[in-house]
Protein backbone atom coordinates (compact mmCIF):
# COMPACT_ATOMS: atom_id res chain seq x y z
CA UNK A 1 0.00 0.00 0.00
CA UNK A 2 1.69 3.19 -1.16
CA UNK A 3 1.30 6.58 0.45
CA UNK A 4 -1.14 8.44 -1.73
CA UNK A 5 -1.42 12.08 -2.61
CA UNK A 6 -4.70 13.83 -1.98
CA UNK A 7 -7.23 13.03 0.73
CA UNK A 8 -6.38 9.36 1.26
CA UNK A 9 -3.98 8.03 3.87
CA UNK A 10 -1.47 5.51 3.64
CA UNK A 11 1.84 4.65 4.96
CA UNK A 12 1.55 0.89 5.30
CA UNK A 13 3.85 -1.32 7.35
CA UNK A 14 3.27 -5.01 6.73
CA UNK A 15 3.75 -8.21 8.62
CA UNK A 16 4.85 -10.91 6.23
CA UNK A 17 4.41 -14.64 6.25
CA UNK A 18 6.14 -16.69 3.59
CA UNK A 19 5.73 -20.08 1.96
CA UNK A 20 8.00 -22.04 -0.35
CA UNK A 21 8.66 -20.48 -3.78
CA UNK A 22 6.74 -21.52 -6.86
CA UNK A 23 7.57 -21.21 -10.54
CA UNK A 24 5.98 -17.77 -10.85
CA UNK A 25 8.49 -15.71 -8.89
CA UNK A 26 11.06 -13.03 -9.55
CA UNK A 27 14.22 -12.69 -7.45
CA UNK A 28 14.82 -9.33 -5.83
CA UNK A 29 18.13 -10.56 -4.43
CA UNK A 30 19.43 -14.05 -3.78
CA UNK A 31 17.06 -14.76 -0.88
CA UNK A 32 14.03 -12.47 -1.27
CA UNK A 33 11.45 -13.19 -3.93
CA UNK A 34 8.49 -11.17 -5.13
CA UNK A 35 5.45 -12.67 -6.82
CA UNK A 36 4.68 -11.99 -10.46
CA UNK A 37 1.12 -13.26 -10.50
CA UNK A 38 -0.98 -14.85 -7.77
CA UNK A 39 1.62 -16.07 -5.29
CA UNK A 40 1.29 -13.10 -2.96
CA UNK A 41 -1.81 -12.80 -0.76
CA UNK A 42 -2.78 -10.02 1.62
CA UNK A 43 -5.42 -9.74 4.31
CA UNK A 44 -7.51 -7.78 1.87
CA UNK A 45 -9.06 -4.48 2.83
CA UNK A 46 -12.41 -2.87 2.25
CA UNK A 47 -11.27 -1.29 -1.01
CA UNK A 48 -12.48 2.01 0.34
CA UNK A 49 -9.51 4.33 0.10
CA UNK A 50 -8.51 3.32 3.61
CA UNK A 51 -4.87 3.09 4.59
CA UNK A 52 -3.22 0.10 6.19
CA UNK A 53 -1.23 0.72 9.34
CA UNK A 54 -0.85 -3.06 9.68
CA UNK A 55 -1.35 -5.36 6.72
CA UNK A 56 -0.42 -9.04 6.53
CA UNK A 57 0.88 -10.53 3.30
CA UNK A 58 2.15 -13.95 2.27
CA UNK A 59 4.52 -14.82 -0.52
CA UNK A 60 7.26 -17.25 -1.45
CA UNK A 61 10.81 -16.97 -0.10
CA UNK A 62 13.89 -18.95 -1.02
CA UNK A 63 15.19 -19.82 2.43
CA UNK A 64 13.39 -20.73 5.62
CA UNK A 65 15.66 -19.27 8.29
CA UNK A 66 15.85 -15.59 7.38
CA UNK A 67 12.66 -14.35 9.04
CA UNK A 68 14.03 -11.77 11.41
CA UNK A 69 16.79 -9.20 11.13
CA UNK A 70 18.56 -9.51 7.76
CA UNK A 71 15.51 -10.80 5.89
CA UNK A 72 13.27 -7.90 6.96
CA UNK A 73 16.04 -5.37 6.34
CA UNK A 74 16.65 -6.71 2.85
CA UNK A 75 12.96 -6.57 1.95
CA UNK A 76 12.70 -3.00 3.25
CA UNK A 77 15.74 -2.05 1.17
CA UNK A 78 13.60 -2.58 -1.93
CA UNK A 79 10.60 -0.63 -0.61
CA UNK A 80 9.88 3.11 -0.59
CA UNK A 81 10.06 4.76 2.87
CA UNK A 82 6.27 4.94 3.18
CA UNK A 83 5.97 1.13 3.05
CA UNK A 84 7.69 -0.92 5.77
CA UNK A 85 7.85 -4.59 6.69
CA UNK A 86 7.93 -4.92 10.48
CA UNK A 87 8.29 -8.68 10.82
CA UNK A 88 8.12 -12.05 9.09
CA UNK A 89 7.49 -15.66 10.00
CA UNK A 90 7.20 -19.02 8.27
CA UNK A 91 3.53 -19.97 7.95
CA UNK A 92 3.62 -22.93 5.59
CA UNK A 93 2.15 -23.47 2.16
CA UNK A 94 -1.49 -23.79 3.29
CA UNK A 95 -1.68 -20.34 4.89
CA UNK A 96 -3.72 -17.64 3.13
CA UNK A 97 -3.50 -14.13 4.56
CA UNK A 98 -7.04 -13.13 3.57
CA UNK A 99 -9.03 -16.33 4.07
CA UNK A 100 -7.49 -17.28 7.42
CA UNK A 101 -7.96 -13.83 8.95
CA UNK A 102 -10.74 -14.14 11.53
CA UNK A 103 -10.66 -10.63 13.00
CA UNK A 104 -9.82 -7.24 11.52
CA UNK A 105 -9.64 -4.01 13.45
CA UNK A 106 -9.79 -0.55 11.93
CA UNK A 107 -9.41 2.89 13.43
CA UNK A 108 -11.02 6.14 12.39
CA UNK A 109 -9.77 9.56 13.48
CA UNK A 110 -12.53 12.11 14.00
CA UNK A 111 -11.26 15.70 14.32
CA UNK A 112 -12.39 16.96 17.71
CA UNK A 113 -13.47 20.32 16.32
CA UNK A 114 -16.12 18.50 14.26
CA UNK A 115 -17.83 17.36 17.46
CA UNK A 116 -16.80 20.02 19.95
CA UNK A 117 -17.95 23.61 19.53
CA UNK A 118 -15.21 26.15 20.30
CA UNK A 119 -15.22 27.73 23.73
CA UNK A 120 -16.35 31.30 23.32
CA UNK A 121 -14.27 32.82 26.10
CA UNK A 122 -11.50 31.71 28.45
CA UNK A 123 -12.26 30.98 32.05
CA UNK A 124 -11.89 33.96 34.31
CA UNK A 125 -9.49 33.02 37.04
CA UNK A 126 -7.18 35.05 39.20
CA UNK A 127 -5.01 31.94 39.55
CA UNK A 128 -4.19 31.79 35.85
CA UNK A 129 -6.20 28.65 35.14
CA UNK A 130 -7.00 28.79 31.44
CA UNK A 131 -9.66 27.17 29.34
CA UNK A 132 -7.59 24.03 28.77
CA UNK A 133 -9.11 22.47 31.88
CA UNK A 134 -12.61 23.14 30.59
CA UNK A 135 -11.63 21.71 27.21
CA UNK A 136 -10.31 18.53 28.84
CA UNK A 137 -13.57 18.10 30.73
CA UNK A 138 -15.60 18.60 27.57
CA UNK A 139 -13.51 16.02 25.71
CA UNK A 140 -14.13 13.51 28.51
CA UNK A 141 -17.86 14.18 28.19
CA UNK A 142 -17.56 13.78 24.44
CA UNK A 143 -15.85 10.39 24.80
CA UNK A 144 -18.64 9.22 27.09
CA UNK A 145 -21.34 10.54 24.75
CA UNK A 146 -19.97 8.88 21.62
CA UNK A 147 -20.19 5.45 23.23
CA UNK A 148 -23.96 5.47 22.82
CA UNK A 149 -24.13 5.63 19.00
CA UNK A 150 -21.08 3.37 18.64
CA UNK A 151 -22.68 0.57 20.68
CA UNK A 152 -25.71 0.48 18.37
CA UNK A 153 -23.58 -1.13 15.66
CA UNK A 154 -22.25 -3.99 17.79
CA UNK A 155 -23.66 -7.41 16.88
CA UNK A 156 -24.96 -9.08 13.74
CA UNK A 157 -26.90 -6.65 11.52
CA UNK A 158 -27.87 -6.08 7.93
CA UNK A 159 -25.65 -3.27 6.65
CA UNK A 160 -27.43 -2.87 3.30
CA UNK A 161 -27.77 0.87 3.91
CA UNK A 162 -24.07 1.15 4.72
CA UNK A 163 -22.72 -0.09 1.38
CA UNK A 164 -23.66 -0.08 -2.30
CA UNK A 165 -25.46 -2.61 -4.46
CA UNK A 166 -27.08 -4.66 -1.68
CA UNK A 167 -30.70 -4.87 -0.58
CA UNK A 168 -32.26 -5.71 2.77
CA UNK A 169 -32.46 -9.43 3.30
CA UNK A 170 -29.40 -10.34 1.27
CA UNK A 171 -27.04 -12.60 3.18
CA UNK A 172 -24.02 -10.71 1.92
CA UNK A 173 -25.24 -7.58 3.72
CA UNK A 174 -25.20 -9.32 7.10
CA UNK A 175 -22.01 -8.55 8.98
CA UNK A 176 -21.06 -8.86 12.63
CA UNK A 177 -19.31 -6.03 14.42
CA UNK A 178 -17.45 -7.44 17.40
CA UNK A 179 -16.61 -4.22 19.19
CA UNK A 180 -16.66 -0.44 18.81
CA UNK A 181 -15.07 1.97 21.24
CA UNK A 182 -13.39 5.34 21.61
CA UNK A 183 -9.74 4.75 22.46
CA UNK A 184 -8.05 8.02 23.27
CA UNK A 185 -7.21 11.49 22.05
CA UNK A 186 -4.60 11.70 19.29
CA UNK A 187 -2.79 15.00 18.79
CA UNK A 188 -0.57 15.50 15.76
CA UNK A 189 0.64 18.61 13.97
CA UNK A 190 -1.77 20.82 15.88
CA UNK A 191 -4.85 18.71 15.13
CA UNK A 192 -6.73 16.78 17.83
CA UNK A 193 -8.59 13.60 16.92
CA UNK A 194 -10.82 11.15 18.73
CA UNK A 195 -9.54 7.69 17.84
CA UNK A 196 -12.43 5.30 17.20
CA UNK A 197 -11.78 1.55 16.99
CA UNK A 198 -14.07 -0.95 15.24
CA UNK A 199 -13.47 -4.70 14.97
CA UNK A 200 -15.15 -7.48 13.01
CA UNK A 201 -14.34 -10.43 10.82
CA UNK A 202 -14.97 -8.59 7.56
CA UNK A 203 -16.48 -5.33 6.39
CA UNK A 204 -18.34 -4.18 3.30
CA UNK A 205 -17.29 -1.46 0.90
CA UNK A 206 -18.09 1.92 2.52
CA UNK A 207 -19.40 0.20 5.68
CA UNK A 208 -17.02 1.73 8.21
CA UNK A 209 -17.05 5.14 6.56
CA UNK A 210 -20.85 5.22 6.68
CA UNK A 211 -20.87 4.02 10.27
CA UNK A 212 -18.57 6.92 11.16
CA UNK A 213 -20.59 9.33 9.04
CA UNK A 214 -23.78 8.42 10.87
CA UNK A 215 -22.05 8.60 14.26
CA UNK A 216 -20.91 12.13 13.44
CA UNK A 217 -24.43 13.04 12.28
CA UNK A 218 -25.86 11.78 15.58
CA UNK A 219 -23.25 13.61 17.64
CA UNK A 220 -23.99 16.86 15.80
CA UNK A 221 -27.74 16.45 16.37
CA UNK A 222 -28.67 16.00 12.71
CA UNK A 223 -30.63 12.85 13.59
CA UNK A 224 -31.34 11.01 16.87
CA UNK A 225 -29.34 7.93 17.87
CA UNK A 226 -32.40 5.77 17.12
CA UNK A 227 -31.83 6.61 13.46
CA UNK A 228 -29.04 4.01 13.57
CA UNK A 229 -31.51 1.22 14.36
CA UNK A 230 -33.78 2.56 11.63
CA UNK A 231 -30.96 2.39 9.06
CA UNK A 232 -30.01 -1.14 10.16
CA UNK A 233 -33.54 -2.57 10.09
CA UNK A 234 -35.46 -0.69 7.39
CA UNK A 235 -36.25 -2.69 4.26
CA UNK A 236 -36.20 0.56 2.28
CA UNK A 237 -33.13 2.60 1.28
CA UNK A 238 -32.21 5.01 4.08
CA UNK A 239 -29.87 7.98 3.48
CA UNK A 240 -26.58 7.57 5.38
CA UNK A 241 -23.62 9.97 5.05
CA UNK A 242 -20.21 8.63 4.01
CA UNK A 243 -17.32 10.00 6.07
CA UNK A 244 -13.96 10.78 4.39
CA UNK A 245 -11.63 7.87 3.60
CA UNK A 246 -8.30 9.44 4.56
CA UNK A 247 -9.12 9.24 8.28
CA UNK A 248 -9.60 5.46 8.17
CA UNK A 249 -6.90 2.80 8.39
CA UNK A 250 -6.49 -0.86 9.29
CA UNK A 251 -4.45 -1.58 12.42
CA UNK A 252 -4.77 -5.24 13.30
CA UNK A 253 -5.34 -8.67 11.77
CA UNK A 254 -5.91 -11.76 13.92
CA UNK A 255 -5.32 -15.40 12.99
CA UNK A 256 -6.49 -17.14 16.15
CA UNK A 257 -8.08 -20.05 14.28
CA UNK A 258 -4.95 -20.74 12.22
CA UNK A 259 -2.70 -20.30 15.24
CA UNK A 260 -4.73 -22.87 17.16
CA UNK A 261 -4.61 -25.43 14.35
CA UNK A 262 -1.01 -24.85 13.30
CA UNK A 263 1.02 -23.66 16.31
CA UNK A 264 4.18 -24.97 14.68
CA UNK A 265 3.87 -22.30 11.97
CA UNK A 266 3.40 -19.48 14.48
CA UNK A 267 6.58 -20.01 16.44
CA UNK A 268 7.93 -16.51 15.86
CA UNK A 269 4.66 -14.72 16.48
CA UNK A 270 3.52 -11.53 14.82
CA UNK A 271 3.09 -9.46 17.95
CA UNK A 272 6.38 -9.44 19.84
CA UNK A 273 7.66 -6.33 21.59
CA UNK A 274 10.11 -5.34 18.85
CA UNK A 275 7.41 -5.43 16.22
CA UNK A 276 4.95 -3.52 18.39
CA UNK A 277 7.53 -0.76 18.82
CA UNK A 278 8.13 -0.64 15.07
CA UNK A 279 4.39 -0.51 14.39
CA UNK A 280 3.90 2.28 16.94
CA UNK A 281 6.64 4.36 15.34
CA UNK A 282 5.04 3.92 11.96
CA UNK A 283 1.62 4.72 13.41
CA UNK A 284 2.92 8.09 14.58
CA UNK A 285 4.05 8.81 11.02
CA UNK A 286 0.62 7.82 9.77
CA UNK A 287 -1.06 10.20 12.23
CA UNK A 288 1.22 13.00 11.05
CA UNK A 289 0.29 12.24 7.45
CA UNK A 290 -3.44 12.27 8.26
CA UNK A 291 -3.14 15.49 10.26
CA UNK A 292 -1.32 17.14 7.36
CA UNK A 293 -4.09 16.10 4.98
CA UNK A 294 -6.72 17.41 7.38
CA UNK A 295 -4.98 20.78 7.62
CA UNK A 296 -4.27 21.15 3.90
CA UNK A 297 -7.13 19.35 2.16
CA UNK A 298 -10.00 20.12 4.55
CA UNK A 299 -11.79 16.90 3.68
CA UNK A 300 -13.84 16.86 6.87
CA UNK A 301 -15.19 20.34 6.21
CA UNK A 302 -16.33 19.16 2.79
CA UNK A 303 -18.03 16.21 4.47
CA UNK A 304 -19.87 18.57 6.84
CA UNK A 305 -21.07 20.58 3.85
CA UNK A 306 -22.31 17.39 2.21
CA UNK A 307 -23.96 16.37 5.48
CA UNK A 308 -25.82 19.67 5.57
CA UNK A 309 -27.16 18.95 2.09
CA UNK A 310 -28.15 15.39 3.04
CA UNK A 311 -29.73 16.37 6.38
CA UNK A 312 -33.23 17.22 5.02
CA UNK A 313 -33.50 13.80 3.34
CA UNK A 314 -32.39 12.09 6.56
CA UNK A 315 -34.90 14.09 8.60
CA UNK A 316 -37.69 13.32 6.13
CA UNK A 317 -36.92 9.59 6.15
CA UNK A 318 -36.89 9.56 9.95
CA UNK A 319 -40.16 11.48 10.28
CA UNK A 320 -41.85 9.18 7.76
CA UNK A 321 -40.66 6.16 9.72
CA UNK A 322 -41.99 7.61 12.98
CA UNK A 323 -45.36 8.41 11.38
CA UNK A 324 -45.66 4.89 9.97
CA UNK A 325 -44.75 3.40 13.34
CA UNK A 326 -47.38 5.50 15.12
CA UNK A 327 -49.97 4.50 12.52
CA UNK A 328 -49.16 0.84 13.06
CA UNK A 329 -49.49 1.28 16.82
CA UNK A 330 -52.93 2.89 16.40
CA UNK A 331 -54.13 0.01 14.22
CA UNK A 332 -52.89 -2.47 16.81
CA UNK A 333 -54.69 -0.63 19.62
CA UNK A 334 -57.96 -0.69 17.67
From TrEMBL:
Domain Pseudouridine synthase I TruA alpha/beta: start-end pairs: 151-255
Keyword Isomerase: yes
Catalytic reaction list: uridine(38/39/40) in tRNA = pseudouridine(38/39/40) in tRNA
Keyword field contains tRNA processing: yes
Region Disordered, annotated ranges: 1-60
One biological process term in Gene Ontology: mRNA pseudouridine synthesis
Entry's Gene Ontology cellular component terms: nucleus
Domain of life: Eukaryota
Single annotated GO MF: RNA binding
Enzyme Commission number(s) of this protein: 5.4.99.12
Keywords for this protein: Isomerase, tRNA processing
Alphabetized Pfam families for the sequence: PseudoU_synth_1
PANTHER family, alphabetized: PSEUDOURIDYLATE SYNTHASE, PSEUDOURIDYLATE SYNTHASE 1 HOMOLOG
Family classification: Belongs to the tRNA pseudouridine synthase TruA family.
Protein name: tRNA pseudouridine synthase
